[in-house]
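User: Assemble these into one structure.

Assistant: Restating your components, then the assembled model:
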Amino acid sequence: MAHIYLPAHLAKFTRGLRNVEACGATLGEVIDNLEIAFPGIRERLVANDRLTPGLAAAVDNVLASGLREAVRDSSEVVFLPALKGGV
Amino acid sequence: MSAKTSGAKIGTYQVIGTRPIRHDGVEKVTGRALYGADLQMAGLLHGRVLRSPHAHARILSIDASAALSMPGVKAVVTTADFPGSGNRVADLGEGTIKVRDLCANVLAGEKALYRGHAIAGVAATTPQVASEALKRIRVEYEVLPPVMDVLEAMKPGAPILQPDLRTEDLGEKGSTPTNVAKHLRFEKGDIAQGFREAERIFEEEFKTSMVHQGYIEPHNGTALWNPGGELTIWTSTQGAFTVRDQVATMLDVPVSRVKVVPMEIGGGFGGKIPVYLEPVAALLSRKTGRPVKLLMDRTEVFEGTGPTPGTVIRVKMGARKDGRITAAQAWLAYEAGAFAGSPVVCGMMCIFAPYDVAHQLIDGYDVLLNKPKTAPYRAPGATSAAFATETVLDQISEWAGIDPMKIRRLNGAKEGTRRVDGLVYPRIGYLETVEAACGHPHWTADIEKLPSPQAHTVSTKAHRANLLHGRGVASGFWFNIGLKSSCMASVNPDGTVCLVEGSTDIGGTRTSVAMQLAEVLGISAEDVKPQVVDTNTVGYTDVTGGSRVTFATGLAAIEAARQIERQMIDRAAALWEVKPGDVEVSRGCYRLRAGGKSLTFKELSGKLSDCGGPVVTQVTVDADKHGVGCGFATHVVDVEVDADTGKVTILRYTATQDVGKAIHPAYVEGQIQGGVAQGIGWALNEEYYYDLQGRMQNSSFLDYRMPTALDLPMIEAVLVEVPNPGHPFGVRGVGEVPIVPPPAAIANAISRAIGTRLRTLPMSPARVLEAILKRSR
Amino acid sequence: MKSHLTFELNGEATETFCEPRQSLLEVLRDELKLTGSKEGCNNGNCGACSVLLDGRVVNSCIVFGLEAQGRKVTTIEGLAEGGTLHPLQQKFLEHAALQCGICTPGFLVAAKALLDVHPHPTEAQARAWLAGNLCRCTGYDKIIRAVLDAAPSASGGK
């Protein structure tokens, strides 16, 4: 089971929990399994088969390229806002 | 300048850490380097943009007939010239945006939403005729009341900028018209529990003004849309590919029809990521069939291009007498300008980032008002946030009677600390910056006995009695963004390497990237010939921004060098008629393992035609996969406050920063010194000053007061090197974090000097004097 | 209606035509295609367009082109002589005194004016003389160091 850290505004789908667990070999599978446990959450995380624009996910502290990102059994998955920058 | 090394030293280097002369240096000191405005071409038309005199107005009609009848006037364009339906959406990497909104900032749609909002573009045979033509365009406005204050804009009943905007409140769409585009929240632990653990709770409100990036080069854009449908754009930009993508989206043409040629760029600081003139020039070129060049003047830059938001920030922190912070709560409202998209989310992620606080709650609001659409500015959103947190931390430090350095040691984030956004810090160097500041002679020097580098401020003895002194400390955090970079490299027969890259060079990155390639290949920095090219010539490369180029494009150059080295081993093997495994390489010297034969990189380069032909390689990297570094800084400043006038003089400034590994230390110091100077301007003088009708009153460099050479002392940059484990040489982004601490550090110093706190930026003479007079009453 | 203008530009007799309302900066950039002098503000506040007019530093954006009639103008293009960089140019490179480079031509011209008057300036003198030139990238530290370092060789070499 991967450990998932959800942003505060998604906790309403998880009965207030911000740290949950889900199975899956990829980020996409993890999200699919989250949806089974917490119906409605998927449409906040995924749009058109990609991570919702403006949202990023980190698997074990490294930003994921997309839903096919590999997730290990003990991985930590963090959903957070995507960043831009300016020098 | 001093360099200190903490933590593991990754290796000893021959090129990295040296200070070669930059590759584009001679062109730039002789006036030969070509910036966007310097472009000349046959048949060139000159364009100007008509701008709204009102902060908020409905555009009832635009009549350009009188302008078009003038001799020399070739075309006029308005928002109606943008193609297609207004309801298309696009994802340009920062979330879905309505194409209509993108276009409406470039040429206003139904309403003008800020003074300076572009209304129409004109192309004429000379700039003078174009300027005259602007006066002949008749625009009928219905003037509407503007809303200029972020708190006013949030209230029910405020004038509404965009009637179809609904708040996205923690993911839920609201149902009523509003100026609040977004409400976001971060949470960690249990905030109520955190405050229960506190012995004292501090709660303060801070206000900062809208400020501009202030690059010296105004925006420019030249376009030629040829009859075959191929559009070429020449512009000074932080990212040629983002210009291509934005322009293609607005004009509804495939990206392959748009080629963007990046000219030299005269400063950006985030403000040259959005496009303003390029689509207008393109539309004018399509109408006229000729190349069209558009330039802004300084007032247009201030009124019509991306400043960074003014903010209202409330910070509530609980602390114990032993100095531990038990809870940290923040409420941030950021001015987005006329369209959604302030950097409030970055402000939220940064506001408590240097500290390990178990219980946090952060709410942020993205708020529209009748000011220019904000754009990124060096560590977007972080400086205002740090101004709030670092001031409250200083209050805690005074209350607890604990030294400002010690309180940072007690609470500072380190490897393993979980950020409020959920990520866990890898190896970071925050505490090392605190130690470096603490150990610096500045920290222990007697402030009164300092020889003032600004001796001209001191006059009579009586005057001197009214000069108050204070020392302040503040820290700051900023990300190091990864994203994508590409490059190509080819070996010349004389042993030099051409490096072709897509990262526009604003501050010496041709050199800092080339040095990494040189280090791997064992050649000199001078033997690399870096070149920044157009979007048809190199693979996709993200913007020069987010402190990313030396890190991310550097990763691409390192990989290119490794591939070249592998090919060179193969060539040496072919030459010597052995297996590649029989060849070894060290610092650019290729040897037969068995001994007897060796060639330097240069010698082998000269023989390539005999053993397989040219060596060429191309690389693209997703730098996010390599583990981006995080940047921390701790600054110490001494100020002198003239109690008669409220004027603040910076006497001494020391900035310590974890830079990971300084590739070219002089340019790293330069980034720090420049960021500090901008932070000092933000702290003391800079602000958008509006009248009641929403008209900016100080839209010139005379009245928008940026620091001059006379306003600043030397700025000492202390490079702390805690290598980033995600980069082969340990590089971290360095460009942005130096602007984060200065306003807070100066505010803390002023507080120590005058005995009362200022919580509004800028801390102009009038505000400082008011604080002094209030205190003495 | 254009007027005839003759003046000495970087040591060479030069003639051109310009409109009376054109600034010296516009004449240099648009008519003579010398684009080394930059426009940052067009109202005399940033110094990016600094040139020497009869040896004195002026903001060429607020001087009419026709005011140069019969006078000597030195621009950034005239600083290096005979293929050799001026010592100020060399020191700017060595000290990394430029980042984006847009203000650099103006600083070099203004610094030359300073060294022509004060061959060995103090830091305070250098800061005062260069206060009319804005740089947004460097914080001035390395610029001031470069100018101070250029002083002995600049005066010795010229």
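Chain A has two helices and seven strands.
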